[in-house]
Design brief:
The protein has 228 residues and is of the alpha/beta class. The chain is built from seven helices and ten strands. It is globular. It starts with a strand and ends with a strand.
Length: 228
């Protein structure tokens, strides 16, 4: 059986809000194999955002273990988590999170800049990825000169620039019209076909149906985990 590249073992996350302890995740266990395309769904307050923050090494579990690849990231300090995020994870957000003063190429290059990669190498990688997401002719444009769908393509290219172990997408079509949303989902389909591991958080059933596995949360627990 293939080894998991993501493994959660009885992961719990609690928050203290004044005198009240909130259990956002109440003992979550699951594994993800390389090349899987997974949707994570559930009602508001079910723990989706908390789970995404933990998967993205933006936060640490209160208890339990999280293995990313062969690394136990559960108890890493902030600097170590930051290094893992930069090297092993790619993020695609609903609001794109592009820097408006930078060009398409410069936005794609940002993760490589923070890793200290040579400028010539970074620029070549960024051009290749701009082409891969269909933005060959827009590389010197800035985000405000692009449509929402094009901005999300830049964000996807940026997420791919470090050849991440996992791509995490948080409501990636939430700010797009239906046609642009379909284009982005087709691009995710292509990435999955090329062997990328995708984890997509969404509230939209039609978006979730593109994934080959659906995890549904309720009250901080996995309610269902269905492979299609």
């Amino acid at each position: 059986m293939p080894a998991s590249i993501v493994q959660f073992d009885n992961v719990r996350k609690t928050y203290q809000m004044g005198l009240v302890t909130v259990e956002a995740l109440r003992g979550v266990t699951f594994g993800i194999e390389a090349g899987e395309y997974i949707s994570i769904m559930g009602p508001s307050g079910c723990g989706k955002s908390t789970l995404l923050n933990l998967l993205g090494c933006l936060d640490r579990p209160s208890s339990g273990r999280y293995l990313l690849g062969t690394e136990d990231v559960s108890q890493m300090d902030d600097d170590a988590l930051s290094s893992v995020r930069g090297a092993r994870l790619g993020f695609v957000f609903q609001s794109y999170n592009l820097i408006q003063q930078l060009t398409v190429l410069e936005n794609i290059e940002i993760p490589l800049y923070y890793q200290g990669r040579p400028e010539e190498e970074s620029r070549a990688t960024a051009r290749k990825l701009a082409s891969r997401v269909g933005l060959d002719t827009r590389t010197e444009h800035k985000p405000f000169e692009l449509s929402g769908g094009q901005q999300q393509r830049v964000a996807i290219a940026r997420a791919l620039v470090n050849d991440p172990l996992v791509i995490l997408a948080d409501e990636p079509t939430g700010n797009l019209d239906s046609n642009s949303g379909k284009e982005i989902l087709r691009l995710f389909d292509e990435l999955h076909a090329q062997g990328k591991t995708l984890i997509l958080v969404t509230h939209d059933n039609s978006v979730a149906e593109r994934a080959h596995r659906a995890i549904r949360l309720r009250d901080g627990l996995i309610e269902t985990d269905v492979r299609r």
